[in-house]
Amino acid sequence: MRLLLAEDESALADWLVRALGQSEYQVDWVADGRLVRRALRGTRYDALILDLGLPGLDGHDVLADLREHDERLPILILTARDSLAERVSTLKAGADDFLAKPFEIEELEARLLALVRRSRGREFSRFVCGNLSYDAVTKRFQIDNEPLALTAREHAVLRTLIQCSGEPLAKREILDRVFSDESDVHPEAIEVLIHRLRKRLAGSSAQISTLRGLGYVLEVLP
């Protein structure tokens, strides 16, 4: 899952990037509200963590701007302003959830997962494509309830594909989502991993298709 974090407290932002990274989230960080729209133009994110007290353009204005331009990205407000009026105003303005500082990382992760599930119409923390399933809590893949053995990189690529099941992802986008902190990984590595995953999925009802000009998509066999 790829997240955009808009937070001006560098110590908090650094901690969040590292903590969420340990739970297999890819997090990009901006410290100025004016940079949010620019980041969203260049990358497809699963959710935005938005602080209200941003320099340049504060969180309220960022939120209003995104919703005015029909940006439907799930947005979780992260702020020290913990008042009923603040919560009500931001939720009415289009925020999807509100978390006051200080907070526990486990609660943030649970709220993010719930936001993304709701945005994709999913009720549970389980992603399914045919008889292939992925449990976001246990971080395990199964085919017909049997564990699917994968290497760490195969797991990361397949997780990215099943979280966007039915949506094509370009090779560069998969690379950025899975290996954003590894500068030595080349786009050709994705081709190799896709080839391996197709072998792993042989015999299942899920397949990885190549859409010319668009990328790879995980879908159910017709």
From TrEMBL:
GO terms assigned for molecular function: phosphorelay response regulator activity; transcription cis-regulatory region binding
UniProtKB keywords: DNA-binding, Phosphoprotein, Transcription, Transcription regulation, Two-component regulatory system
Organism whose genome encodes this protein: Aquincola agrisoli
Keyword Protein biosynthesis: no
Tree of life domain: Bacteria
A single BP term in Gene Ontology: regulation of DNA-templated transcription
Gene3D superfamilies the UniProt entry points to: 3.40.50.2300, Winged helix-like DNA-binding domain superfamily/Winged helix DNA-binding domain
PROSITE patterns associated with the record: OMPR_PHOB, RESPONSE_REGULATORY
Gene Ontology cellular component terms for the protein in this record: cytosol; protein-DNA complex
Protein name: Response regulator
Lineage: Bacteria, Pseudomonadati, Pseudomonadota, Betaproteobacteria, Burkholderiales
InterPro entries to which the protein is assigned, alphabetical: CheY-like_superfamily, OmpR/PhoB-type_DNA-bd, Sig_transdc_resp-reg_receiver, WalR-like, WH-like_DNA-bd_sf
Domain Response regulatory, first and last residues per copy: 2-116
Sites bearing 4-aspartylphosphate, chain numbering: D51
Pfam families the record matches: Response_reg, Trans_reg_C
